[in-house]
Design goal:
By secondary structure, the protein is an alpha/beta fold. The protein contains seven helices and ten strands. The structure holds adenosine-5'-diphosphate (ADP) and magnesium ion.
């Protein structure tokens, strides 16, 4: 089991009002599988990924990551666990505009204090794996949106994460490019032995997933 949540709840407080971001979510994610969390805008997808990705603290309930109860970790331990084991893919790619594709992919490895030579070699390997062998020196503005998302996926794979969290990865892409990105994420199970959780409203992700959860108003049901 890579990730598991038990009665995971996040309440947002805004002045006098409270909003239930996620409500008693129980889910289990097995190694080397693709899990989709499908729901409309505002249903709690980003809230849930932020909690599983150890970027936010639950109001109640727990996140277990690789059998560890993460509520028992301090901030440094959480940060290290995240840096070493979790990669993120966002709707808007979040690439650094002044860096080349290669340098964007090297960045998480630099944070993990890998040697320069190892960074370069691994970044080139990952960019090849996502089909961008001929784009290593391109900057984001010189790439198509589909290529930008591939760079972001290669970056998420740096440091060999056990888990990739993808938040609306096809949200900015046209139908055909979105389909290619879904297939690429789907291949990671076999190619890189990575577990992937995709939060999306794109029904096509559910079709390639090993398991699908539906989320609505912060509550999930398994399909
Ligand atoms: P999704 O990613 O599915 O669109 P979110 O997880 O972003 O949904 O949001 C779930 C609900 O929580 C929404 O009603 C949203 O308005 C609310 N919400 C999200 N983040 C915050 C926040 N930081 N403060 C207050 N409310 C929030
Ligand atoms: Mg969202």
């Amino acid at each position: 089991m890579i990730a598991k949540t038990t009665d995971l709840t996040r309440v947002y407080r805004l002045g006098a009002s409270t909003i239930l971001g996620v409500n008693k979510v129980n889910l289990e994610v097995e190694e080397a599988t693709l899990v989709s969390i499908v729901g409309p805008s505002g249903s709690g997808k980003t809230t849930l990924l932020n909690l599983i990705g150890l970027c936010d603290h639950p109001t109640s309930g727990k996140v277990f990551f690789m059998e560890k109860d993460t509520s028992r970790l301090n901030d440094t331990e959480r940060r290290n666990l995240r840096l070493q084991n979790i990669g993120f893919v966002f709707q808007t790619f979040n690439l650094l505009p002044t860096l080349t594709a290669l340098e964007n992919v090297e960045l998480p490895m630099a944070l993990a204090k890998k040697s320069q030579a190892a960074q370069r070699e691994e970044a080139a390997r990952l960019l090849k794996a996502v089909g961008l062998a001929k784009r290593l020196q391109h900057r984001p503005r010189e790439l198509s949106v589909g290529e930008m998302q591939r760079v972001a996926i290669a970056r998420a794979l740096a440091n060999h994460p056990s888990l990739i969290l993808a938040d609306e990865p096809t949200g900015e892409l046209d139908s055909k490019t979105g389909f290619e990105v879904i297939n690429l994420l789907s291949e990671l199970r076999r190619k890189e032995k990575t577990t992937v959780i995709v939060a999306t409203h794109d029904e096509r992700v559910a079709r390639v997933a090993d398991k699908t959860y539906r989320i609505l108003d912060g509550s999930i049901t398994q399909e």
